[in-house]
Design goal:
The complex is a heterodimer. By secondary structure, chain A is an all-beta fold. Helix content of chain A is 0%, strand content 50%. Chain A is built from no helices and eleven strands. The mean pLDDT of chain A is 93. By secondary structure, chain B is an all-beta fold. Helix content of chain B is 0%, strand content 54%. Classes of the chains: A mainly beta, B mainly beta. Chains A and B meet through strand 5, strand 9 and strand 10 of A and strand 4 and strand 5 of B.
Chain lengths: 115, 112
Amino acid sequence: SAVISQKPSRDICQRGTSLTIQCQVDSQVTMMFWYRQQPGQSLTLIATANQGSEATYESGFVIDKFPISRPNLTFSTLTVSNMSPEDSSIYLCSVQQGAPGTEAFFGQGTRLTVV
Amino acid sequence: GENVEQHPSTLSVQEGDSAVIKCTYSDSASNYFPWYKQELGKGPQLIIDIRSNVGEKKDQRIAVTLNKTAKHFSLHITETQPEDSAVYFCAASGSTLGRLYFGRGTQLTVWP
């Protein structure tokens, strides 16, 4: 399985500011995803991070609010922009090493609190 | 898109008893069904998965069954231990994009 390092593990941010979350994988992976998990809730897909091109966003999520980069096959960033208290959540990076429909692994998450 | 329903939302069992969590899915094209365990403050951990060409899979104390006709799959944990206490998520995937659709989760508590 892939080893995923996600930074920071937690942060407390002022409203109106932005936070960039990093996801580093120890091997090249085919697909990288970003999820949001609100307190006590399930996982909601924000976007698929595409290497060398713009991310593919799910309904309800837009690039201006959640810009994503993926410069290579082992690294991606998610920025939460112009934060409000409603953005307080756990943000999770997930990777798949093989073809779609193969095992997906998760980082430990970033617990974000916006005050 | 796919819709995954998971029941129950909470489950309490005595140590040594069995626990069963059930999920249904809506998209007949889904062909991959993983289960994740999430402990407090950690990311989800893949514990077992099953593909649509298999009806049952077992790994020590955990097993998963799949009924494609009914669009139903279940997680079975036998001889439960307190360290099994966590939130369990089922998921389904079938599109070429590889995305997972998650159930709402089951908080399992195993009492010693």
